[in-house]
Amino acid sequence: MKSFKLHITLVLLAVVAVATSSCDLFKQRSRVYGGPAVVEFYPQSSTVSEGSSLSVKVQLIGEQRNSDTSINFAVVDSNTTAESGTYSIPTSSPVTIPANSSSTSIDINAGDNPNMGSGEHRTLTLVLNGNDQVNGAENLKYFTLRIEGN
């Protein structure tokens, strides 16, 4: 009986070994991006109270550049409900990713909005337009800021 249990155990171990070696469960996957250089916002959204400020990161996806890289950005008027004058963007477009670096940031100030009460909110949406060599990553080129009333 011991011999039979030993054979069953060995057969089961052999089946498990074959099953796990034939799939890529334990194989390492490359995390190196191989496509064209693009830029993204990180994170893609955030929430602040009026009267607050924040910095949103613009990150290069791809190899770092040997020279400064200027990236154009703009407010998406069709997706922005915050009234002009109730926010400011001290960082002007284009923003510069320094040579041999992967990121920079855009500063945003959410001012007080006399037309917005407590419990209400407005949004500000930015888009990365990139430049002639580096585009905004299609699914990561928008940033939406939710500004909540006090």
Quickly list its features.
mainly beta; five-stranded mixed beta sheet; 1 helix; 150 residues; 13% helix
Q: What is the number of helices? A: 1
- CATH architectural label: Sandwich
- What is the share of helical residues? 10-25%
| CATH superfamily descriptor | hypothetical protein (bacova_03559)
- The radius of gyration is 25 Å
Largest sheet: 5 strands, mixed
CATH class: Mainly Beta
Q: What low-confidence regions span 5 or more consecutive residues with pLDDT below 50? A: none
Structural class: mainly beta
Order of SSEs, N→C?
HEEEEEEEEEE
Through-space gap between termini: 77 Å
**Strand order of the biggest β-sheet:** 5-7-3-1-9
User: What's the β-strand tally?
Assistant: 10
Bulk shape: elongated
Beta-strand proportion = 35-45%
| Structural domain count | 1
Indicate the mean pLDDT: 89
Give the CATH topology.
Immunoglobulin-like
